[in-house]
Specification:
2 domains; 11 helices; Rossmann fold
Length: 274
């Protein structure tokens, strides 16, 4: 892995990302590209149409600019402190879906703060930004908690469908440095009679890529209960297929991903076949 995209607004900044990337550079140097966007479109608010309404818009524009400057400075400081090569792009027109698609098209991985994904969401509803970003990204996405210690184990959410297998393969190819860590493949179903799909093939793949793989079958609701189970797994990285295209799997629906991100505070790797 050579190029990572760091997508960030002015208010949500995952400090833990730098320590995580530093751990990756043990094998090879990584270039980190910072994509900074404002919460509102500064150029639009700076236009004559809005200037007639004066003070509130002027203050909002200045707050957004200062927030963007602060995030950029923190990004530069973090990269230089950890010896990470970097580039920067700034967007004062707010969230740019088209630009994000192109940036992820030419990146190996995109890093996004879990706080950015969790802002302005209700207890039982997924964040619309999270849904959009995961659907349109043309590279895998790593959702990073604000703080990060280390990765000591990998948990792979497996439902027997091609999306989870694709995510597993993407992760294995990008993060070969984790091959020696314990890996737990978790098959979550509320029906105890269901066998684990293609378990023999999953075991073969696990044995080929990981030194210590284990397959676990859990019986409970895939959203709330799985997130509670994960809370007891400290220093864990979760691998999951995206809910993006069909939305047929309980494991990869927006509500499932949302619960994990908000309640577990662990890195979550998500990939889908574009």
């Amino acid at each position: 892995m050579k190029k990572i995209l760091f997508a960030c607004d002015g208010d949500h900044f995952p400090e833990g990302a730098f320590k995580f990337i530093k751990s990756l550079q043990v094998n090879e140097p990584v270039t980190l590209k910072g994509m900074f966007f404002t919460g509102v479109a500064i150029r639009q608010l700076s236009s004559p149409v809005y200037s007639d309404f004066a003070a509130p818009y002027v203050r909002l524009v200045e707050e957004e600019r200062q927030s963007l400057i602060k995030s950029r400075e923190r990004f530069i400081h973090g990269c230089e402190s950890y010896g990470i090569r970097y580039k920067i792009e700034e967007y004062e027109d707010g969230w740019d879906q088209g630009r994000f698609i192109k940036e992820t098209r030419f990146a190996d991985l995109a890093l996004i703060s879990e706080q950015l994904f969790c802002k302005e969401i209700l207890e039982d509803q997924p964040n619309s930004f999270m849904e959009e970003a995961l659907r349109i990204a043309e590279c895998p996405v790593m959702i990073m908690p604000e703080s990060f210690s280390s990765v000591e184990r990998i948990v792979v959410a497996y439902d027997g469908k091609k999306e989870s297998a694709f995510a597993l393969k993407q992760f294995s190819h990008l993060f070969s440095q984790f091959d020696e860590l314990p890996v737990e493949f978790v098959y979550v179903k509320d029906d105890e009679t269901d066998d684990i799909p293609d378990m023999d093939l999953l075991k073969e793949y696990s044995n080929a890529h990981y030194d210590a793989g284990n397959i676990t079958k859990l019986h409970f609701d895939a959203g709330h209960s799985f997130s509670k189970w994960l809370q007891n797994k400290k220093n864990t990285l979760l691998v999951a297929g995206s809910f993006s295209r069909s939305g047929t799997s309980m494991l990869f629906k927006p509500s499932f991903v949302d619960q994990i991100i908000r309640k577990s505070s662990i890195p979550v790797f998500i990939a889908h076949n574009v």
